[in-house]
Amino acid sequence: MSADSTEDRMTLVTGSAGFIGFHVAKRLLERGERVLGVDNVNDYYDVRLKEARLAQLTPFDTFRFLKLDVADRDGMSALFETHPIRRVIHLAAQAGVRYSLVNPYAYVNGNIISFLNILEGCRQRKIEHLVYASSSSVYGGNTRMPFSVADNVDHPVSLYAVSKKANELMAHSYAHLYHIPCTGLRFFTVYGPWGRPDMALFIFTKAILEDKPIDVFNFGNMQRDFTYIDDIVEGVIRIAGKPAEPDKAWSGSDPAPGSSSAPYRIYNIGNHQPVELLRFIEVLEKALGKKARMNHLPLQPGDVPATYADVQSLTDKTGFTPKTSIETGVERFVAWYRSYYRV
């Protein structure tokens, strides 16, 4: 392969020190692709975990990393000007529903201003495809299950959800105005090895091993469409290779929310098998060989009682359907956790 053809295949992966970004970058590198990783490596959670993820990527000679905040307008403009970027997989974000209740400004900078910088870079560079992370949280107050990309999503219940819905709207405007193919992926409760310490599986595992009680919200009456990281990555990479196209059947008199007359698409990526929280804890107890002590609490502000993904449009587009069971996924996470933390 010539140097030029390698350069032409460069993919920008933002959030490459993060949970999903790290896994996506690693899979691309293993496929022989050239990856430019960007992350600000902030201290929202343990920086050492982020650095350990990056240490898994740096041995690849086709990987380059820049420590840069995507909200840095000048820095991102220079990045797009000086690197031969073909496509963008934008996974950097200020994560966490509950954190948005105490630090809302972090979500404007981390999710909205940052996304505008990405869109402007894509416009300048004439990027072939922008794939970006949305979230199941955009479904907000919706109660009809399963959640479909054909559903209205105008009733968010957290600022985090608002920021993700804003990303979808911003992407549509750029797809319409500048014909940038934009695909948004609504992730459903992602878990697995190298996961985030602020997420339930990580918190529960640590507490159970330390013989501490775990907080079980909504008195355990929660359902989540837990989606294993390998399934998420497979979906992201398959979609990345299929740039969004205008929907020829789209009509302004009956506008479909998940597509457009512009090159714009939205897909759910979930396991399409919602699991009761208490069942999830039971699976974790079995993997750990230890029972949990539970502190039952009411539903927290910003949370929703259930999520359930309709993934038919993803399957129709890519031929892929997430399929990893929670038994398999939780067992793999626990094995990683024990190895990484030597417990």
Descriptive keywords:
seven-stranded parallel sheet; 40% helix; 13 strands; 15% strand; alpha/beta; 343 residues; single chain; two-stranded parallel sheet
Textual characterization of the structure:
- This protein has 343 residues and is an alpha/beta fold.
- Helices cover 40% and strands 15% of the residues.
- The protein is globular, with a radius of gyration of 20 Å.
- The protein is built from 11 helices and 13 strands.
- β1 (11-14), α2 and β2 (35-39) form a beta-alpha-beta unit.
- The chain has helices at 3-8, 19-30, 47-57, 73-82, 105-125, 159-178, 200-209, 229-240, 277-288, 312-318, 326-341; strands spanning 11-14, 35-39, 63-67, 87-90, 129-135, 182-187, 190-191, 214-216, 223-224, 227-228, 264-269, 275-276, 294-296.
- It has a 7-stranded parallel beta sheet with strand order 3-2-1-4-5-6-11, sandwiched between helices. A two-stranded parallel ribbon has the order 7-10. The protein has a two-stranded parallel sheet with strand order 8-13.
- α5 runs parallel beside α6 and α9 packs across α11 (326-341).
